[in-house]
Amino acid sequence: QGAQVSLNAAYPTRAMSSPRGSSPKGSTGGGRSPRDASPRGSSSPRGSSSPPGQQSGRSSGSPSRQGGDTARSGGTSSRSPRSPRSPRGGSPGGLRRRQDDEGRRRGVRCPQCRCCIFMCPCMFCCHPDTTIDRESLIREMRAASKSRTVNMAMIEDTLREDREFRKRQKFKWKRRWNLCCCCFWLLLICGSTAAVLLLALGSWSLLCYGEDCGFEARMHFGVVFTPSKKIVVLGGTNKAVNFGDVWEGNADGNGWRLLAENAPFGPRHGHALLCHPGTGELFLIAGDVQGVGEMPSKPTNDVWMSDDGGTQWYLQTASAPWLPRKYLGTAINENGVIFLAGGNIGYGMSGLNDVWKSEDGGKTWSPLTLVAPWTARHSFAFVRLSGGSRPGRLYVLGGEDGRRLHDVWASDDGGRTWSVMTFTHTREQRFSVYEERASWTPRASFPAVADKDGFLTLTAGATDEEGDASYSAEVWQLPTPADEDLEWYERKTKDDRLNTAAVPLEWSLASSPPWTGRYGHAAFIDDEGVPHIVGGEDKEGLKNDLWKMTMSFDVNNLQAIYERTKEQAMGLGLFGDGETDTADASEEAASSQNGTGNGLENNTVGNGTIGNDSVGNGTIGNDS
Fold first, then answer.
1. Fewer Cβ close by (within 10 Å): the C or N end of the chain?
2. DSSP 119-176
3. 116 vs 16, which has greater pLDDT?
């Protein structure tokens, strides 16, 4: 009763005016009018309410009975039609739900923990720190009971339950938030680890780079893999001077040592280097002994041989019957027969289309054809298949005859007769056409190698594109031709459309390698039939790296990808002026190779010339 008095004192009764017999909301007396709620016989004016502390009901009754009725009714009259815990919205649970709905309509507020400042999204929803307001609860309970008096003990119990409920909710959402954070960081770490593994796991593996390779950066040189599992690098140029040295390294790219610093054949570039697959003898053929700096081009037609892996060299012939040349194509078979085709004679874009062979190690030569059906060209790829369905087949791929080419010619009779090959080109993955050209873009100054199964691999080269796009970084592969000796059940018809052996081969583009686009490099096949590439020149300058086409996990692949990404970003101007940085890098590369810093002053890439050897749309030779 004292609590009721205090509550009524804190919230004074407002004067109400209602028609006779009606009971305004919030009046006492269990739904009766104020006039009926007044003591019997009193003459209170109409519309007035009972003074604070007056007992509701038809009779005043005794104080003890009044306290008992108040206790039994939860602080209201015994004739109250609805208790505070009635299911029609007066319960604390219903009030909490209404408050949550109002909070959602007003917008979810951030919790006091401020976790959403550091991490997003915030997992604390519906502002769990917001509790039921005391004043709102009192008003709700008054409206539900239609009485001015409420039970303050129930108010306190409701508020305490609400605080405990909010505490449990906050603990639950904190636990969910911690679980979400753990899952997020776990996914982030796993994703980063997977990305690193995928980037480090590439189709090419870097065996050595820079000083680890031993030899200086160069282009237009010779490289072979010997039966003793050694890699031999010979000659080449850095566009300022020619090299006449011979280097030997292990198959894993380590253990490089200098065999001859100044070999008797003299410095040269654009030559051919062959290795006898049985005896391991090395053969050096032709090349240009000048053609760098201010010196005019001077091709040769001599042949040298070494039987000790490259230390000692012997002259086989000083003047072969074919014209002096460079950028020629050569191959050797299992019996030591050497095949020679095409090349550049050193004057502008002049090329050759003759084919020769030697059966005595280059001492004597006989022509197979002096005028092959393919155009006179140089800087092309010349390959002989040692296995597969066409062992002994010779290929002439691409090159330059005044313009860059992408045709392929084949000879199955040792180079006497040639025929242009037709390839399948898939258009939009829906239909195929057959054309007398390869799928790769026209290019020159690129190598091609074939394994023991007749699988052909072509790498990089100089294309007709402008700027940095002229340095190709593509790897194309061609399977061995189908065997014509088909079984009877495979020869069901004479219609070529149903004969799988008559369908032209199709070039396939391998995955993008981690090494940069280049030309003037060399390639070889090891004893396992795995292609390798060495050196060359990219848009930054000359290279002295060694790559192996094999699936492996190598951290160096990450470095190569990082450098390539950085180059692309610098080219887009994201990290400064790309052209200035590239020019500075080229000057530093020239200074490190020549010692003078002038190595690239007289050499331009693109539509002009590079030294005396053009790689653009101009000319190759001294008269450019």
1. N
2. SSS----S-TT----HHHHHHHHHHHHTSS---HHHHHHHHHHHHHHHHHHHHHHHHH
3. 116
Q: For residue 275, what are the β-bridge partners?
A: 282
pLDDT digits (tens, 9 = 90+) for 343-385: 999 887 789 999 999 999 999 999 999 999 999 999 999 999 9
For residue 112, report the phi and psi dihedrals to the nearest 5 degrees.
-70, -20
**What tokens appear for 416 in the block?**
């006497």
C-alpha to C-alpha distance for 519 and 587, rounded to whole angstroms = 19
Look at the block and give the residue holding tokens 């037709």. 422
Q: Cβ neighbours of residue 49 under 8 Å, at least 6 residues apart? A: 13, 15, 16, 27, 28, 34, 37
Would you give the DSSP letter of residue 610? B
Amino acid sitting at position 417: T
Q: List the beta bridge partners of residue 330.
A: 340
DSSP code for 324: P
Q: Which residue carries 């080419």 as its tokens? A: 405
Alpha-carbon gap, residue 122 to 461, rounded angstroms: 54
Which of 66-80, 337-351, 553-567 shows the lowest mean pLDDT across its residues?
66-80
Q: For residues 394 and 410, give the distance between their C-alpha atoms in angstroms, rounded to a whole number.
A: 6
Residue type, 541: G
Radius of gyration, alpha carbons of the chain: 46
Q: Is 567 helix (H, G, I), strand (E, B) or coil?
A: helix
Residues 446, 459: contact at Cβ < 8 Å? yes
Backbone angles phi, psi at 440, to 5 degrees: -80, 160
- Of the listed ranges 70-79, 310-319, 342-351, 570-579, the least confidently predicted one is 70-79
> What contacts 476, CB < 8 A, 6 or more positions away?
438, 439, 440, 457, 458, 507, 508, 509, 510
Q: What is the mean pLDDT of the chain?
A: 76
Q: Is 103 helix (H, G, I), strand (E, B) or coil?
A: helix
In the numeric block, which tokens belong to residue 355? 């084919």
Q: Is the dihedral of CA 306, 312, 317, 320 positive or negative?
A: positive
458 DSSP β-pair partners: 448, 476
- Beta-bridged to residue 519, according to DSSP, are 537
For the entire predicted model, the pTM comes to 0.63
Could you tell me the two tokens for 441? 């873009």
How far is the C-alpha of 378 from the C-alpha of 349, rounded, in Å? 8
